[in-house]
C-alpha cells in the first residue's frame, strides 16, 4: 500500500506526516488541499526531510491485513469467548450476554495494550519512505491540468 503526505513536524529522527485521504487523491480535480488531507501520522525515519516535503510511504499489504485482523477480528472473538465462558460456567442467558460484553471490553483492552506497547515499534519497522519531493501547493492552478502527483 502506497500513500503520500506532507511533513508537518520534525523531532529528531521522528517526523509527523499529514497523510492524504486515499479516496480523495485517486482522482484529483484540484480541489482545495484541506479537503484532501487525512490524519496525522508519526514514525521514525532515517532519511533527510524538511518541513513541507511531500513523502511517499509504503507498507506491505501483508502488514495492512495483519493490522486490520488485529483491529477488527480480535474484539469480536473475545466477545464470543466471553459468552461461551459464561455459558459454560452455568450462568443464565442474560448473564452470558453480560459476559460477552465483558469479553468485548477485554478485547478492546487487549487492543489498547497492543497499540501502546507493540504497534508503534512495529509501524516504525514496517513503514518505508519510497520518495521525498519538494511540495509546491501552487503547482495545480489550472483545473484542466492533471494533478495525479498531488
UniProtKB/TrEMBL annotation:
<feature type="transmembrane region" description="Helical">
    <location>
        <begin position="67"/>
        <end position="85"/>
    </location>
</feature>
<keyword id="KW-0418">Kinase</keyword>
<dbReference type="InterPro" id="IPR007359">
    <property type="entry name" value="SigmaE_reg_RseC_MucC"/>
</dbReference>
<keyword id="KW-0808">Transferase</keyword>
<feature type="transmembrane region" description="Helical">
    <location>
        <begin position="97"/>
        <end position="114"/>
    </location>
</feature>
<dbReference type="GO" id="GO:0016301">
    <property type="term" value="F:kinase activity"/>
</dbReference>
<keyword id="KW-0812">Transmembrane</keyword>
<dbReference type="Pfam" id="PF04246">
    <property type="entry name" value="RseC_MucC"/>
</dbReference>
<keyword id="KW-0472">Membrane</keyword>
<keyword id="KW-1133">Transmembrane helix</keyword>
<protein>
    <submittedName>
        <fullName>Histidine kinase</fullName>
    </submittedName>
</protein>
Amino acid at each position: 500500500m502506497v500513500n503520500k503526505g506532507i511533513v508537518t513536524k520534525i523531532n529528531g529522527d521522528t517526523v509527523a506526516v499529514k497523510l492524504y485521504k486515499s479516496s480523495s487523491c485517486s482522482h484529483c480535480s484540484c480541489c482545495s488541499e484541506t479537503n484532501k488531507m487525512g490524519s496525522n501520522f508519526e514514525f521514525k525515519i532515517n532519511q533527510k526531510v524538511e518541513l513541507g516535503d511531500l513523502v511517499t510511504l509504503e507498507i506491505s499489504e501483508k502488514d495492512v491485513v495483519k493490522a486490520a485482523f488485529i483491529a477488527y477480528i480480535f474484539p469480536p472473538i473475545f466477545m464470543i469467548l466471553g459468552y461461551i465462558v459464561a455459558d459454560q460456567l452455568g450462568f443464565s442467558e442474560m448473564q452470558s450476554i453480560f459476559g460477552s460484553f465483558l469479553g468485548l471490553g477485554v478485547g478492546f483492552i487487549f487492543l489498547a495494550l497492543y497499540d501502546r506497547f507493540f504497534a508503534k515499534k512495529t509501524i516504525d519497522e514496517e513503514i518505508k519512505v519510497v520518495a521525498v519531493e519538494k511540495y509546491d501547493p501552487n503547482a495545480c492552478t489550472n483545473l484542466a491540468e492533471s494533478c495525479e502527483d498531488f
